[in-house]
Amino acid sequence: MNRNSKILNNKIAGYSSLITFVVLLIAWIAGFSSRLFAVIRFESIIHEFDPWFNYRATAYMVQHGWYKFLNWFDERAWYPLGRIVGGTVYPGLMITSGSIHYILHILNIPVHIRDICVFLAPVFSGLTSISTYLLTKELWSPGAGLFAASFIAIVPGYISRSVAGSYDNEGIAIFALQFTYFLWVRSVKTGSAFWASGAAISYFYMVSAWGGYVFIINLIPLHVFVLLIMGRYSPRLLTSYSTFYILGLLFSMQIPFVGFQPIRTSEHMAAMGVFVLLMAVAALRHLQSVLSRNEFKKLFIVGGFLAAALVFVAVVALTLMGVVAPWSGRFYSLWDTGYAKIHIPIIASVSEHQPTTWFSFFFDLHILVCAFPVGLWYCVKQINDERVFVVLYAISAVYFAGVMVRLMLTLTPVVCMLAGVAFSGLLDVFLQEDSSKRMPNTINALQESDEQDESLERKSLYDKAGKLRHRTKQDPTHDSGISSNLKSIVILAVLMILMMFAVHCTWVTSNAYSSPSIVLAFHNSQDGSRNILDDFREAYYWLSQNTADDARIMSWWDYGYQIAGMANRTTLVDNNTWNNSHIALVGKAMSSTEEKSYEIMTSLDVDFVLVIFGGVIGYSGDDINKFLWMVRIAEGEHPKDIKESDFFTDRGEFRVDAEGAPALLNCLMYKLSYYRFGELKLDYRGPSGYDRTRNAVIGNKDFDLTYLEEAYTTEHWLVRIYRVKKPFEFNRPSLKAKDRLIPPTNFISRKNQKKRKGLIRNRPIVVKGKRTLK
Amino acid sequence: METNWVFFVAMIFSVTLNSTISDVINKNLERTLDITSQLVKTTYKLTVEETSGKPLKDYEFIVREPNLSYISVKDGFNKKVEIEEIQENGSNLLKFNLTFSEFSSKQTLLIETVSTKNILAYPSHIKQNDKQLVKFVGSLYLYSKYPTYAQKTNVILSSPNILSHTQAKPFLVSSNKIFLGPYENIERLVDEELVIHYENQSPFLTVNTLGRTIEVSHWGNIAVKESIHMTHTGAKLKGPFSRYDFQKDGRSGQSAVKSYKTYLPASAFGVYYRDTNGNISTSNMNLLRDSVELELRPRFPLFGGWKTQYILGYNVPSYEYLFSSGNEYLLKMHVIDHIHDNMSIDEAVVTIILPEGSSNIELVTPYSIKRRQNDLIHTYLDTVGRPVVSFSQQNLVESHISQFTLKYRFSKISLLQEPFLVILFIYIIFLFTIVLLRLDFSLTSHFHKD
Question: Where are the transmembrane segments (chain A) (predicted)?
Answer without folding.
Answer: 12-31, 84-104, 116-134, 140-159, 207-230, 242-263, 269-287, 299-325, 358-380, 387-405, 411-431, 489-509
